[in-house]
Amino acid sequence: MTSPNKDFIYHIGTVGTPWGEAEKQQWLSEQQIKRSYKDEVVTALQQSLPDTAELLTYGTLDYSAFDLPTYELFAVRSKNWQEGKPVVLVTGGVHGYETSGVQGALKFIKEHFNDYSDKVNLLVLPCISPWGYETINRWNPKAVDPNRSFGAESQSDEATQAMAFVRQHSGEILVHIDLHETTDSDNSEFRPAKAARDGTVNHNWNIPDGFYLVGDSNKPEAEFQRAIIEAVQKVTHIAEADEQGCLIGEKLVQFGVVNYPKRALGLCGGMTEAKFVTTTEVYPDSPKASPEQCNAAQVAVICAGVDYALA
Fold first, then answer.
1. Helix crossing, 191-198 with 21-29: angle to 10°?
2. How confident is the model at residue 208 (pLDDT cuts 50, 70, 90)?
3. Could you tell me if 254 and 287 are in contact, meaning their C-beta atoms sit under 8 angstroms apart?
4. Which Gene3D superfamilies match (predicted)?
5. 181-195 core/surface letters (b: 16 or more CB in 10 A; e: else)
6. pTM of the model
7. CATH architecture entry for 21-310
8. Number of H helices, E strands in the chain
9. Which residues, 6 or more positions from 137, have their beta carbon under 8 angstroms from its beta carbon?
C-alpha cells in the first residue's frame, strides 16, 4: 500500500494557478507513445472475434491538430441482436493507462462472449481512449479526463462518441460494468498533475492493495456488488479498508465496495439507466497480483455480474 504522506508539487505550472494553453502544450509535448493500440487492441480483436459477435467502428478520434494520429474506435456487439433481450454494456480503457481494463475486456470477448450470446445482447467498448492507451495516460491530448466527461457538457471526444453510440441501441440496458485500475502512478503522476492543472493543492491518498468496486450511490445494489466480490476473491485478493475505514478517501459501504454518485461526477458508469452498475478497480502494482490475475479479475466481474442480474 502506497504511503499517502509524500505530497509534491508538479513540475508544470504555478502553484495555485490553473493551467493555460502554454502549460497544456508543455504537458502534451512530454507524452510519448509507449505501446501500440493497433497491435495490442485492434489486431487482437480482428484475430479472435467470436462467431456470435460483430466488430463495428463507432467513431474516429482526429487529433491531427496536435500532430497526433487519428484513431478508429471499435465496439464488439452481438451479431444476433434481438429486441426484448436485456442489454449488457461493458466499457474498458476509459482511462487508457489502466491496462487490465482493456485487456480484460479483450479476454472476455475472446473467451466468454459466446457463453452469453443466447442470453443477452452484448455491447463491449474495449478501449474508449486509444491515445491514452498508447501513452499510458489518464487524460486525452487536451488534458481532459474522459471519466469526468460523461455528461451533457462533455469536453471529451472519447466520452461523447461512446455515449452517442450506446444511445443508438434499443432495449433495456440491464448491466453496465466499467473496467478500471487504481495504480501507484495515481499518486506519483496523475493526482499531482490534476492539482497543478486545476490550480489546487494535491494530497495523496492510500492506494489500496487489492481489488475493490465502486458502486453507484443512487442505486448501490449491495447484493450485486457482493456477488462480484465473492467471484473475484477466487482470482485475486480484495482490498482492506485503511485506518479511517476508507478506500481512496471514501467510506467503505461493504467489504470491498465504496460508492460514488456516478452521474453527478460525469463518470462512464453513470451514462445509462442500467439497474446493475459497477466500476472495477484492480491493483496491478501489488506484489501479490500478476497481470494475468488482473485480467482474469476483470473477466470474473463481467461473468459474475451478468449471472447475478439474470438470476
1. 160
2. very high
3. no
4. Zn peptidases
5. bbbebbbebbbbbbb
6. 0.96
7. 3-Layer(aba) Sandwich (3.40)
8. 10, 10
9. 31, 96, 97, 129, 131
